[in-house]
Design goal:
This protein has nine helices and seven strands, in the order E-H-E-H-H-E-H-E-H-E-H-E-H-E-H-H. It is of the alpha/beta class.
Length: 210
């Protein structure tokens, strides 16, 4: 039996709602991500114990960091994550993060022959070498206009192809701030299979630990 997981960014103390909805959808592990410095470590350690209250759910917490606070964050948790930015190469080379996500969500415009999808062969080779996962946020597809969603889908297709070519570890998650942004794992697997990801790789990307 597959142990599906999700990564979320809870707002307004909705952690219990994420767990309850996740369990209904067959998710067995949730990673709560917080911007470093917004919560005290004792508060986050308490939140990580929510899985003991809710049966069959494993819970971990981690931080979304920037270049200034990454070292301090590392003293408090092993799960350090960054969102894609102009500093992607710096973060990947640092080997201090576990995952980097959101490459497709950029303000840069696609060119005539190339999508501005954030990833390139250099970043993929570095991520592979340093064992850093590339995160795909299916939650970024919701609540957008048809044109924006179409652009994001095209960028994801390009990045999936790159990750598979360079054998980069991938993670698929909602990265949602809203508990209702979580979807059935099998629906997510079907979506990413359509986008070009190997079906077994899509399953693994929804189940692997980070």
């Amino acid at each position: 039996m597959l142990m599906f997981s999700d990564i979320v960014i809870p707002k307004n103390n909705k952690e219990s709602e994420f767990i309850e909805i996740g369990l209904r959808l067959g998710i067995k592990k949730i990673y709560f991500l917080y911007n470093y410095g917004e919560h005290g470590i004792e508060e986050l350690q308490a939140k990580s114990k929510l899985g003991e209250i809710h049966k069959n759910m494993s819970v971990e917490y981690g931080f979304i960091v920037n270049e200034k606070n990454i070292n301090n964050a590392l003293k408090e948790t092993r799960l350090i994550v960054s969102k894609s930015s102009d500093l992607d190469k710096f973060f990947i080379e640092s080997q201090k993060i576990r995952l980097i996500y959101g490459f497709e969500d950029t303000d840069k415009r696609d060119s005539l022959h190339q999508r501005a999808a954030g990833l390139n062969h250099t970043l993929c080779e570095l991520a592979k070498k340093n064992n850093i996962a590339i995160g795909f946020s299916y939650g970024s597809l919701f609540g957008k206009g048809a044109q924006t969603t179409s652009i994001l889908l095209g960028r994801m297709m390009q990045n999936i192809k790159l990750c598979q070519k360079y054998k980069v570890q991938t993670k698929i998650a909602s990265f949602s701030e809203d508990p209702f942004g979580i979807r059935l794992p099998h629906d997510v697997i079907s979506l990413f299979t359509i986008l070009g990801m190997d079906r077994n790789k899509a399953k693994e990307s929804l189940t692997i630990d980070i």
